[in-house]
Each structure stands twice: as structure tokens, then as C-alpha cells.
């Protein structure tokens, strides 16, 4: 039966911000009369958390999918929760349905760090045009799109400083040579692509009896994934942390003699495009963070920070709190009767109408500027 039904989805853009309107057109081609329970267009956001378990000599991958955002337009047939599943017949023809979906203001960024050997996470967005048959779901028409999340410049500036201290026990030829303390501090805890992370390393070697030298600085992303007890069949669920390759690494030329204290400034220039941004920090079952890691004489300190896709000088976006562990993406699961968006011409199936029991969709209105290109904000955007 699926051979008689084909659907294609086209979008106006490939990249969107939270608060944007996703506009496009779904084309349904039916070459023979066929029956279905309903035909729909759905916009959704899906998160996949992947955890790899070590079981003796074997590894076992467990994943959990969570649909955190779903908006459905029913073109004809029955609503999704209608107990009456009697099919309707679609006559042959080519039907076009322009659509528009209003994205929530709080959404996680598109992400793909998941693999079946080390775990990770995936967040993807797509528009799907499908017909629900007796028991099957035909989703032959779907179009993935990317969501990137800017952060307001004021929220970057207002982010709290972060620092950490470690004590290094010094030895030489297995002999005790005292200890030194080193402290690493950053003036902010949130950054954006193209930003510069400026920090300070203070080495207190007043209690050391040998010189310490050349701390190294690196920046890397980590993603913690959680698969719940229901999905993993493990009490309390299972968690795992996947670590990405360093985004930046540098060796700092600094030597501190015994009995002295010294300090040094360091800078990490972030690239124009940051892979796997860590802002927003949380999805449904994933937590992302970047760490500035400073190593000295075998010891490390790790400073957690968050890096956004880009910064908005005009402060037009909703802030996703970093410290609020309860903050999750805006959950939405709604269904409306299909209505033709203003300014677009539809060629619907005239003999089949949207269900009268569903309310029409409200006219979507953009709350944020439309993303263009790769989603970077510029002064003239």
C-alpha cells in the first residue's frame, strides 16, 4: 500500500533559531485510490541518549529516544487520539499543503556526538509528512533542519567567574620535595564562538624545594547521557560521559623557583564555529559542558564553562539558565486542524477535510530574527 503514497517536504531554510517560524510545503502524491486513517504534517524535536555498558568482555549499547517537541497538523482523517480509526479513501492526485510551525523559545541545539562505541547524544529536528495506515506509519517525506541557539551578550557578561585550586606534591628521584599550590581563574563562565577565553594561572611555590614549570592548558567538551531505568532495566538507570577531542591545546612557558610565587595570563581564541556547543547546557537526558583544563606536574584542575553557537548584541533571545538543573526544553505536544498559512496557496484534496473536532492552528509569528547561513549573528543581521 505504501507504494501508492509518496510525500516530499521542502523548507524555506535549513537553519533556525528558537522562536523562528519553520515554513515550507508538503507535496503528497497518490497514484491509486488508497485508504488511510489520517494524513498529517508533523514538526518534531527528538533527543537520543546513548550509553555504552561494559559487561565482561563485551560492550552493549543502550539508547533512549525522547520526543520533547511535537506539533501536528492533521490534513484529513481522524485526530491522533480519536478512538474511531475507520479509514478514509484518498483519491489519486497530487496535493500540496504549505505549512508553518512556531518553534518554542527554549530548545536544545542540534547535536550529534552519539556513536555505538563510546556513547553520546543526538538532538535532531525534522518535518515529516505521512499517512497513517491500518497499523503502519508512512513517513516517506521528511526534511531535517538544524536549530542553533544564540545567547544574549548581557547573559555572557553577567555569567559568574569560576576558579579552582589544586595542590601538587613535588618529588625528584622519588624523594619528597615539598608541595606547591596553583589556582586557575576565569572572569566568566559563559562564552560564544569567536570569543576569547582569558584566564590567569597563579603558582604558589613557597613550600616547594624544586622549580615547577610549563603548565599546559586545553579545552574540551563532555556530554553526560542518561538512560532511564525503564529503558535500561537497570535500577536507577545508567549514565556515561563521552569526551570529545580537545578544541584547543597550548603549553604556557612559565617557571617558578622554590620559595616564589608567580602568575601568568593565558588566552584561548575560540573558532568561528564551535563543534558541539555546550549552551544550552541541558536536554531531557543529556548534560553538556566544556572544561578548561590546566595541568601542572601531573595534577589537573578543570573549570566548567559553557560555549554558545553565537552571541546576540541586541539581547533578543530567551536565556536558558545554566545552574538550574530542573530547566528542560519547552515540552510541546499539540495537534491542530490544518489551515492554509496566510500568503501561501494550497492545492489540497478537496473531498477530504481536516477533522472538525480539532481547533485550527493559530497564525505563527516569529519571535526572533530568522537564522540565515550557518546561523551566525552579525552586526547587520
From TrEMBL:
Protein known as: Arrestin C-terminal-like domain-containing protein
GO biological process: protein transport
Spans annotated as Disordered: 353-381
SMART domains for the chain: Arrestin_C
Gene3D superfamilies: 2.60.40.640
Location of the Arrestin C-terminal-like domain: 176-312
GO cellular component: cytoplasm
InterPro entries in the record: Arrestin-like_C, Arrestin-like_N, Arrestin_C-like, Arrestin_domain-protein, Ig_E-set
Biased composition annotated in UniProt, kind: Polar residues: 360-373
Amino acid at each position: 500500500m505504501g507504494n501508492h503514497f509518496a510525500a516530499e517536504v521542502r523548507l524555506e531554510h535549513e537553519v533556525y533559531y528558537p522562536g523562528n517560524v519553520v515554513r515550507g510545503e508538503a507535496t503528497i502524491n497518490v497514484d491509486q485510490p488508497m485508504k488511510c486513517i489520517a494524513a498529517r504534517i508533523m514538526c518534531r524535536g527528538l533527543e537520543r541518549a546513548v550509553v555504552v555498558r561494559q559487561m565482561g568482555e563485551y560492550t552493549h549499547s543502550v539508547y533512549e529516544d525522547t520526543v520533547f517537541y511535537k506539533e501536528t497538523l492533521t490534513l484529513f482523517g481522524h485526530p491522533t487520539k480519536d478512538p474511531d480509526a475507520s479509514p478514509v479513501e484518498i483519491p489519486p492526485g497530487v496535493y500540496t499543503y504549505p505549512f508553518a510551525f512556531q518553534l518554542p523559545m527554549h530548545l536544545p541545539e542540534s547535536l550529534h556526538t552519539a556513536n555505538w562505541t563510546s556513547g553520546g547524544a543526538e538532538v535532531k529536528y525534522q518535518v515529516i509528512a505521512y499517512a497513517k495506515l491500518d497499523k503502519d506509519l508512512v513517513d516517506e517525506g521528511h526534511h531535517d533542519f538544524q536549530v542553533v541557539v544564540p545567547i544574549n551578550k548581557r547573559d555572557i557578561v553577567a555569567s559568574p567567574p569560576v576558579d579552582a585550586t589544586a595542590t601538587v606534591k613535588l618529588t625528584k628521584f622519588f624523594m619528597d620535595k615539598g608541595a606547591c599550590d596553583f589556582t586557575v581563574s576565569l572572569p566568566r563562565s559563559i562564552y560564544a564562538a569567536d570569543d576569547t577565553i582569558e584566564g590567569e594561572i597563579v603558582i604558589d611555590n613557597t613550600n616547594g624545594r624544586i622549580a615547577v614549570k610549563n603548565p599546559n592548558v586545553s579545552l574540551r567538551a563532555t556530554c553526560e547521557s542518561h538512560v532511564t531505568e525503564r529503558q535500561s532495566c537497570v535500577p536507577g538507570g545508567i549514565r556515561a560521559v563521552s569526551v570529545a577531542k580537545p578544541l584547543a591545546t597550548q603549553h604556557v612557558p612559565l617557571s617558578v623557583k622554590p620559595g616564589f610565587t608567580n602568575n601568568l595570563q593565558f588566552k584561548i581564541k575560540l573558532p568561528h564555529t564551535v563543534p558541539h556547543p555546550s549552551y544550552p547546557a541541558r536536554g531531557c537526558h543529556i548534560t553538556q559542558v566544556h572544561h578548561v583544563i590546566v595541568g601542572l606536574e601531573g595534577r589537573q584542575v578543570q573549570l566548567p564553562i559553557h560555549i554558545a553557537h553565537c552571541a546576540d548584541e541586541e539581547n533578543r533571545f530567551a536565556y536558558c539558565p545554566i545552574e538550574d538543573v530542573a530547566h528542560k526544553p519547552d515540552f510541546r505536544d499539540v495537534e491542530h486542524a490544518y489551515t492554509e498559512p496566510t500568503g501561501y496557496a494550497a492545492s489540497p484534496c478537496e473531498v477530504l477535510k481536516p477533522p472538525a473536532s480539532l481547533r485550527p492552528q493559530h497564525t505563527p509569528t516569529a519571535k526572533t530574527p530568522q537564522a540565515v547561513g550557518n546561523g551566525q549573528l552579525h552586526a547587520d543581521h
